[in-house]
Structure formats: C-alpha cells, structure tokens
Amino acid sequence: MTVRTHTPHLLARAGTVSALTLATLGGTTLAPGTAPDAEAASLAVRALRIAASKQGSPYEYGAQGPHSFDCSGLTLYSYKRAGRDLPRSAAAQYGHTRHVSAPSRKRGDLVFFSSGSGIYHVGIYAGGGQIWHAPKTGAVVRLDKIWSGTVRYGRVR
Predict the structure, then answer these.
(1) How far is CA 2 from CA 9, 26, 42, 133, 154, in A?
(2) Can you tell me the distance from the alpha carbon of 53 to that of 136, in angstroms, rounded to the nearest whole number?
(3) Per-residue pLDDT tens for 102-140?
(4) Strands 98-100 and 151-155, how do they pair?
(5) CA-based nearest residue to 51, from 148, 136, 144
C-alpha cells in the first residue's frame, strides 16, 4: 500500500479542494491576478527572516554586512539576499519603495523614520508594531517597538 503525503495536490487533482481546505492542510492558493502581490509578500518575508537572522550583529556606520550593519545596510543586505536590490541610503530606499499607509503595512515592509521632510532611519517591519533594525553606534541588530509616531512605510517592489 502506498501512503501519499501530498494531500492538497490529490484534492486539487480530484477537483474537490477549496482555499479553506488548502489553508487547513498547509497548501496555498492564489486568487486570479494576485501573483505579483504573492511574489512581493514572499520576498518581504524572506528579507524579514534574513534581517532577524542577523540579531546581535554590531552596528557599524556604513557597514552592509554580513557581520556588521548600519540601518540601511541591514535593509539593503536583507533584500539583496532575498533577491531584490535596494539603493544604499535610507532616503534613497524610501524613494525606491511603493508607499503604503500604516493600516496597510505588512511584515517585511520597510519602516522609515522621518524628521521634517528628511528620512533618518530605516528598519524592517516585523508585525505587532515592531521592527528589526541596526539602531546606533554601540548597539546591535535587534527587534524593537516602533518608538515614534513619525514613520512612513514602504513596500519593496
């Protein structure tokens, strides 16, 4: 007797699968026209995981990894390893993203801290009002609560 472990695929072939069934069994499904959104989401989640894997790495001004980082160096490194190039500075990264509102933010979006019209810091949104970032000299890459109300969000395309 052969035991099959790919139940979602069997159900899909039988034509009896729904999105709820697939989700319950660990499969995935895409609604028509959502492939670019799904691709961006998976890219963002990969970048987020890469940033989190650098926890404890020291802050170093101008550093882009793999062992030390400044804020935009961490985001640049994380997205590059996930498969997408970003500009070097936080301000240039902001200009390179699709801007999204706070209620629309998703895990893996970039969080930009601003003062006036300038961007001075960037991190990667981890959900729950927290970011992975390389904060300042003497600190390490870490997960922190977003501490400012003057932040902007950008989605890497």
Answers:
(1) 15, 21, 33, 49, 49
(2) 18
(3) 999 999 999 999 998 899 999 999 999 999 999 999 999
(4) antiparallel
(5) 144
